[in-house]
Write a structure and sequence with these properties.
Length: about 375
Amino acid sequence: MPLHLRPITRDEHLAFVAARPSASHMQLPSWGEVKPDWRAESLGWFDEEGRLAGAGLVLFRPLPKLKKYLAYLPEGPLIDWHAPDLGERWLEPMLAYLRRQGAFSVKMGPPVVVRRWSPDAVKAAIADPAARRLRDAEATSYDPRASDIADRLRRAGWQQTEPGGEDGFAAGQPRYVSQVPFAGRSLDEIHRGLNQQWRRNIKKADKAGVKVVRGGHDDLPAFHDLYAETAERDRFVPRPLLYFQRMWTALTAEHPDRMRLYLAHHEGDVLAAATMITVGDHVWYSYGASTSRKREVQPSNAMQWRMMADAHELGASVYDFRGITDTLEESNHLLGLLRFKVGAGGEAVEYLGEWDFPLNRLLHKALELYMARR
């Protein structure tokens, strides 16, 4: 039988997340407060005995001049994705509810891993001239259940999408990420998993006197100055300072240690800074920034190692470097970032990606055309 879907309270939502080993920070009630242009609602799936069996944060983005919405569940919802009756029991009640709320299209990101490539497999793929993308390289592990989920979603009318941009409706999350596995490993073992360049750079930073400290809300402007410089250097559109201040306030109000800020200092200069987010035993390196000055003292390696050590102390099972490129072309400026993350012992991980369900095909198509023009 289909589960019953209804709005749940913030406390119900947080209690459900707390009972799980991991959940995306984008599926927490606080994430809705980070996105003021979207209306947020916590939804719960209840079984026949009235027990909460699944939860999700849905963000509603209004279509200009119409009372219609794009409904978005980033990296969610938190449901039983491997259930044999996934469509009729879990997803159909969600679509019916969102249609009643005025949604013309639904976007979701199933937190389902398809494939993993070990650091050695990624390095071999980068060195292989025949491999142009990660998917061309043989994976270290593969979960056939993910393909089954994808097939069932397609048969039900869901459409797989590629990540979009950062602004407007293109609220895409990365399909490929880099993760360092921590579970069952000592900090020494994790350190041995760093490549030679990483270990050398950490030593160089320590010898040069780089100090990594934790900051607070008042240090966000210093972080943002470096972030704006990074955006110009790496050719992306930066988020405003207010965004990070809002994120800090929302996430730390929900849990005092949900979000951290780290800054790498050298002789009075802040050379690198990064944010870290923790939910359960999953830790994310969220946003990073650095200056082009004094790069020879290797502040970014020192800062990341401090963050990894702190994540290990928190009991993390995984340190998540977030998005990576799946292209292995030397001409792609993001390949250096992939090398950096894999050098830290990070696996390449492919998720199922984001999926759309057009509830109103005409409006959904209009949105697609609008985004294509942008």
